[in-house]
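Hello forum,

I keep getting stuck at the same step: I have a sequence, I want structure tokens, and every attempt I make locally crashes halfway through. Rather than fight my setup again tonight, could one of you with a working pipeline run this one for me? It's a single chain of 389 residues.
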Amino acid sequence: MRAERVIVGLSGGVDSAVAALLLKRAGCDVQGLFMSNWHEDDVHCTTAQDYQDARAVAAELGVVLHRVDFAAQYRERVFNLFLEEYRAGRTPNPDVLCNREIKFGLCLQYALRLGAERFATGHYARVRALADGAALFQADDKNKDQSYFLHAVPRSQFTRVCFPLGDWHKEQVRELARSAGLPVHAKPDSTGICFIGERPFAEFLGQYLPATPGPIETLEGKRLGQHRGLPYYTLGQRSGLTLGGARGYAAEPWYVCAKVPARNALIVVQQHEQWRLQSQRVLIGPMHWLCHARRGAFRAEIKLRYRQPAQWATVHVRADGGALLEFDQGQRAATPGQYAVLYERERCLGGAVIDAVEPAAVASGAVDAASEQVAVREPEGAVVAATPL
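Reply #2:
Ran it on my machine without issues. Output:
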């Protein structure tokens, strides 16, 4: 009987190397595929070294290694949108788009053209075949689970995908790599933006978005200093404000509370005012479902960022396909442009982009009571202020 051909996305890291090892030991006809998705000749770009590491892994395992260049498509489908979101004052997550458009879009199709029956990666997640179709579940290792980044992949793609590390923990993966003599067993995990590498982010962003200095203000409108450009800051940020001791204010740290693109103003609050960063109502855009689309209201656990423990909320699905999320507990610095991902007993139901939040300032009475619109009077026009919630 012919062995199943599985092509593994070999990135040059330990996770994809062990995924290939496990599939080979399971008797699959394994081949590797290395993707080049970013070209930049500097000390931060690791593509050349990663490719050599992938070659070394393929040689150790005795598998064929293919190479494909998706750099142009990555810039068009992922990076350009990444820049557009920053220009709009939002904070995007390119890893989600990369998985949808590149890894489990173009790369999966390329692997199938090479004769693969399935495409595998080193992601920590699980796919199960249920009565209603393929379903995405969290990995057994909740500290490494990457289902958050996979929620936007079309559900149909998961029928041709496997994640060999779904039932493994990271320490087990490294130990297996070491005992098997894989040359990348001690290679550090990458923590940078996908395919861009670990580099000073502000310096990198400055190559593409010009500096647009503007005022740093309190909620009352008092100017405290000058920022370098709204794209360089995100809600809840503390570092990099360079405010020091502001005269007339307590000796406390300052935090980004809001952005006002209309005036190019950055609004900050002090540590004792961090309650203003809390919100319990979040509006998300059209849902991408990984299950039958829900209607009405239902309960779910939700992550508003990758490292956040899931939070209980009531989901109110709207007629426009989006949803209003009402959290049981206040959420700190829910950020437009990021993703809200929904879970039910470890199953990923899908997710959507955060469009707007209802700031805690609403609770202080700074609301136009004659309108259904959340209209925080200070600062007017802030990114965190929502259109109708």
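The mean pLDDT is 89. If your local run keeps crashing, start a new thread with the error log.
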